[in-house]
Structure formats: C-alpha cells, structure tokens
Amino acid sequence: MPQALASQRLLLRRWRESDRLPFPRLNADPRVMELMPAPLSPEESDSGFDRIQEHFQHYGFGLFAAELLENRTFLGYIGLSVPTFDAPFMPAIEIGWRLAAEYWDRGLATEGARAVLQYAFDDLSLRRLVSFTPPQNLRSRKVMEKLGMVHNQSDDFDHPRLPEGHPLRRHVLYRLDGEAYGKTRECVPYSAFLEGRRSLGSRRLKCSGFGLQHLWFCYSAPKSAHLDQRNLT
C-alpha cells in the first residue's frame, strides 16, 4: 500500500492525527456541504475520520488526505472508497473528493483525481470506477467529465439513504473503465520534481519503477506519482 501519491501541486497521503483539527472545519462549511444532506458536527467528522482509517486497513486503499505540496496546507480528501449502500450498480469502487471552498476552481480536484486514477488502474488493477452526485452538483460533474468518466442517464438512481421527496435523493452516476484509461509515462528524479522540474532539461526516461539510488517519480500528463514514506517528513 503506498503511503502517498503526488501530482504537480498536491500530496495525497495517509491521514495523521493532526488532521482531526482541520477536518471538522471542512465538513462544517456550508459551501462545501451545500449539496450534501447537512453539514457535519465535530463528532460526526471525528467518526468519519475513524471510518476512513478503518477503510484503509480493511481494503488497502481509501480516501487520501490532500495537501498542497508548496506549503503542506490541508485541503480535504481525494481517493477511493467502497460504498456501503445497495444500488443497481453495486458492488463498485467510487472515486471521490472534497476540498475546502477557498481552493475550488483551480483544477486541484481534477489533478489529484487523475493521480488516483493512475493508482487505481495501474497498481490496484481495478476494472472500473464510478462516481456519483446530485444532478445539480455541476462542479463535481465537470471534474468527472474531465477525468473521462461517462454518464448514462439510464444509470441514474435514487440514493437509498435519503427519503423520498428529498431534493438531493436523485443521483447521476458516472463510470470509467480501465480499458478506456489511456496513458503515457515519464520518470524524473525526486529532487528534480521538488525543484519544479527545472533541472530536467531534455532528459526523458522510460518508466521502470523506483530506482535503486534515487526515488523516481513516474507520471503521466497531467503528472502523478508515488511517494516513499521516507519523503513525507
């Protein structure tokens, strides 16, 4: 299980106890939770934190904590989860995200989700991913479409955990098959990655995993990679 993934601007990592402090602020923000049933209380956020950790332990993957590489600011989460409700498309694995409102409209959700896609299809060898949201959540739907996910109206469903008549009960479903996920890879040294790839010049190396002497970042466009635990401190 990788301890983290990285993209050009983001670090997607396993959660730390210190994340319990900013996580409730994220889940209590009415802008972030506008298209969720309700903002979460601190106790509900704390329980959600525990469930994310348990998910990693049970499945070996989960929702990564997301932070900016440049200053390690906690943004929210991006990653994979197994829905725990019954629906026509189940069983399935969902790709999802939740970022602080002040970091919206910068392409960060799409960038981080692309790193997760590469991890899901290349490392976990998953055959398909889904994502779902209320129809009016145009911001998230735009991310799904940028990822190449496909919406078929016949897949739309009523969320079983919301009562009949609830304005958010209807959900649209997007899918992405691994076979449809195309990629080209490049590798760079970790030091060059941290320097904004200024030292790369014309150097391009075929992806061959992690080097013996250096940690190599293998990424596609847009760029994503794995991080070794030693480089998280």
Q: What does this 3D model show about the protein?
A:
The protein has 233 residues and is α+β, with helices and mostly antiparallel strands. The protein has one domain (4-182): 3-Layer(aba) Sandwich (Aminopeptidase), CATH 3.40.630.30. The protein has five helices and twelve strands. It has helices at 22-28, 42-59, 108-123, 138-146, 190-194, and strands at residues 4-7, 10-13, 63-68, 74-81, 94-99, 128-133, 150-151, 157-158, 170-177, 186-189, 216-219, 224-227. The strands form three sheets. Strands 5-4-3-2-1-12 form a six-stranded antiparallel beta sheet, sandwiched between helices. A hairpin with a 2-residue loop joins strand 1 and strand 2 (10-13). The protein starts with a strand and ends in a 6-residue tail after the last strand.
Topology summary:
Blueprint: E1 4-7, E2 10-13, H1 22-28, H2 42-59, E3 63-68, E4 74-81, E5 94-99, H3 108-123, E6 128-133, H4 138-146, E7 150-151, E8 157-158, E9 170-177, E10 186-189, H5 190-194, E11 216-219, E12 224-227
Antiparallel strand pairs: 1-2, 1-12, 2-3, 3-4, 4-5, 6-9, 7-9, 8-9, 10-11
Helix pairs in contact: 1-2
Keywords:
single chain, 233 residues, Aminopeptidase, 6-stranded antiparallel β-sheet, 5 helices, disordered C terminus
> What is the number of beta strands?
12
Count of structural domains:
1
CATH architecture: 3-Layer(aba) Sandwich
Q: Look at the structure and give the mean pLDDT.
A: 82
Helix and strand composition category: alpha+beta
Order of strands side by side in the largest beta sheet? 5-4-3-2-1-12
Radius of gyration: 18 Å
The helix fraction, in percent, is 10-25%
Helix count, DSSP H or I runs of 4 or more residues: 5
Question: Quick one: biggest sheet?
Answer: 6 strands, antiparallel
